[in-house]
Amino acid sequence: MTTDIVPLQMNYPLVATTHLANMSDGDLMVIGKAFPGDNLTDEQRLIKAETMRSQFMLYIDNVDNKKGARDAILRCVTQSIAECMLTLASIDLPLTKSLGYAALIPYAGVCTVTIMYQGLCELIYRSGTIASIQCGLVFDGDQFAYEVGTAPALRCIRGDKPATEANLTHAWSIAHNATGPDTIEVMERSELDKVKGASKMSKGPAWRDWWGQMYRKAPIRRMAKYLQTSTSGAAQAVLARALELDNSGFMLSQNEKYKEIQDANSKELSEQVSAILKAPEALPAPTEIPPPTADEDNALATIVGEMREGVDSSMMDSEFIVQVTFGLLGRNDIQSKTEFNQVWNAIVNEKAFDLETGDRIPDMGEQA
Fold first, then answer.
1. 169 touches 196 (CB < 8 A)
2. Domain containing residue 363
């Protein structure tokens, strides 16, 4: 299976989904060859890749933008979005919002894909050993009981307390096997907390915005691990690949290549601007503005920590400052006191960047 995207001008933010239409047949074929199955012709693989691209364009265009979610995806490095296509192609899972099989998660300029519990169920169905799967959550005040053994049974009657994450007590799943008794998997809150705590993005968008789906997926994932032993061939390979992707999660430190892409892009733009605005040789060189002192750097870090206290974010304070700096200056460092004052004003005085994500908050003039 090919696992690399053909080199393409993808080192800029996506900006608009129409740019995905510029992918060449060669780039699409890389994605097409990732689809499992030995009997697909090149033409069929190209069609599947084109369909995947159309799904991504439609999905992104229809993301709810009330909190800037669509804008966050469009600001992601295009190569990371293309690799999300490659990921879903490798397990032949469509990105269709109505199906809810997967979701795109933007973070700090990088897009990743998360497999939702419906997608995991779909891959289990393909094994042919499961007739159907049910799953659910139990909250404080619900009547809940289950029994395992030769005649497994589970019963849950919803109570009147709010279905909030704080009130969650259990997550359960039932696999109705094609042959033999049903399989029941129940996880208590303490186990669910361990699952969330082990996630590399426990405070990221997936757990924050779709906590119900993430908790539902936990017992299904546990069940799927031993279901692999009862399947074989392509279905087993695809299910194993999906679990591997889900287990790997998303860690910003593992995406240094995107930081390199952003830095290279910033350097390229800087060189272009320098070439255009290069001062005549007869002019004296400008006086160098010294960089900020250590005390100034520490003061900025301290006030950022105070401002972000209690903010639900997987970003460290230092990562937040880097994100703001990149958004303002196009690079990840501050080279003069003038630039330091610009960053300080944007964070402290103007509060122009989201404390949770480090993304710029458009002012009224920009929104108009």
1. no
2. 289-367
- Phi, psi (deg, nearest 5) at residue 106: -85, 145
Q: Report pLDDT digits (tens) over 274-295.
A: 454 444 444 445 566 788 888 8
| 140-174 per-residue burial string, b: 16 or more CB within 10 A, e: under 16 | eebebebeeeeeeebebeeeeeeeeeebbebbbbb
**Torsion angles phi and psi, residue 67, rounded to 5:** -105, 15
User: At how many degrees (to 10) do helices 233-248 and 211-227 cross?
Assistant: 140
Is 353 a domain residue?
Answer: yes
Per the listing, tokens 């830095």 go with 263
What's the pLDDT tens digit per position in 17-57? Answer: 888 888 888 888 989 998 988 888 989 999 999 999 999 99
Q: How confident is the model at residue 177 (pLDDT cuts 50, 70, 90)?
A: confident
In a domain, 342, yes or no: yes
Give the number of other CB atoms < 10 A from CB of residue 271. 10
Which one-letter amino acid corresponds to residue 259?
Answer: K
Residue 306 lies in a domain: yes
Q: Is residue 309 part of a domain?
A: yes
Task: Check pLDDT > 70 for residue 211.
Answer: yes
The rounded radius of gyration (Å) of the Cα atoms in the chain is: 24
Question: Do the Cβ atoms of 118 and 88 come closer than 8 Å?
Answer: no
- What length does the chain have? 368
Q: Mean pLDDT in the chain?
A: 78
192-230-183 Cα angle (round to 5): 45
- Count of domains observed in the chain: 1
Give the model's pLDDT for residue 75: 85
Average pLDDT over residues 139-156: 90
